[in-house]
Design brief:
Structural class: alpha+beta
Order of helices and strands: HEHEEEEEEEEEEEEEEEEEH
Helix content: 25-40%
Radius of gyration: 25 Å
Distance between the termini: 23 Å
Number of domains: 2
Length: about 250
């Protein structure tokens, strides 16, 4: 009975986490450059085998004990597929068609990446992502442009009055990179970055990349997860009632 209680509790916790992530996807459906997320679940037994595997150099040496084959959260998954392009007509707005991310640095010299190209120019003429940091050129320096009257070609070359000024640095996270979110559309790749292949990347000026969230799919997922969460909650109530009966009545029999 206790194992069943734990299985229902793990199911409720997993569904609650999924609901939170789906809700965040829905809330950011209109956020430029946002990438949808989902949870990755596995059975407790599979997770235990993975952590105790002989070839596991990380947390595998830890004994996490015995338990029922309940569901546990393994990790979060970020869908990096490209969103649709939306024309804006603003010269400071940019989008990437293909692989790669814009490289941003804040005042602490922290390197971040984003697909959100809703840029602006500060008082000194530097190209910035408002509230985050400076947009980087291919030398990983700040980009300064005298006026908003400039053009950007598909290779990321920035031209002002027919004079080449800068070239955007398009970053590509290294293989098996994990991401840490700074904002909903800005991330840090813990494995670092390489410069993206220009043949696979095209920059579009006067447009932004919309979120890749599929609202219809997310609404279906949240309804299904809410139903599963309610089922697990009902099972927990039943087990709680059984425990109450066990403690208060069975002991008095005879």
């Amino acid at each position: 009975m206790v194992r069943g209680f734990y299985a229902a509790a793990s199911g409720a916790l997993s569904q609650q986490k999924s609901i939170n992530i789906i809700s965040n996807n829905i809330a950011n459906a209109t956020t430029a450059g946002y990438k949808s997320q989902s949870t990755v679940n596995m059975a407790f037994g599979e997770q235990m085998i993975a952590r105790l595997g002989a070839d596991n150099q990380g947390s595998g040496a830890e004994n996490i004990g015995q338990g029922t084959y309940m569901k546990v959260l393994s990790s979060d998954y970020m869908d990096l597929t490209q969103g649709n392009m939306e024309p804006t007509g603003r010269s400071v707005d940019m989008a990437i068609n293909g692989e790669g991310f814009f490289l941003i640095k804040d005042d602490k010299n922290t390197e971040m990446i984003t697909r959100n190209g809703q840029f602006a120019m500060d008082k000194e003429g530097y190209l910035v992502l408002p509230g985050v940091g400076f947009v980087m050129n291919e030398s990983k320096g700040k980009i300064q442009i005298p006026s908003a009257e400039f053009s950007v070609d598909a290779q990321g070359n920035i031209t002002d009055a027919k004079t080449l000024k800068e070239k955007l640095y398009i970053a590509k996270p290294k293989a098996d990179a994990t991401f840490e979110k700074v904002t909903e559309s800005v991330m840090i790749s813990k494995a670092g970055y390489d410069q993206a292949d220009g043949k696979l990347t095209k920059v579009a000026q006067g447009a932004i990349e919309k979120s890749n969230v599929n609202l219809a799919q997310e609404m279906s997922r949240i309804i299904a997860n809410q139903g599963n969460f309610q089922s697990c909650s009902q099972i927990l109530k039943i087990y709680d009632r059984i425990n109450e009966i066990t403690a208060n009545q069975i002991g008095r029999i005879g």
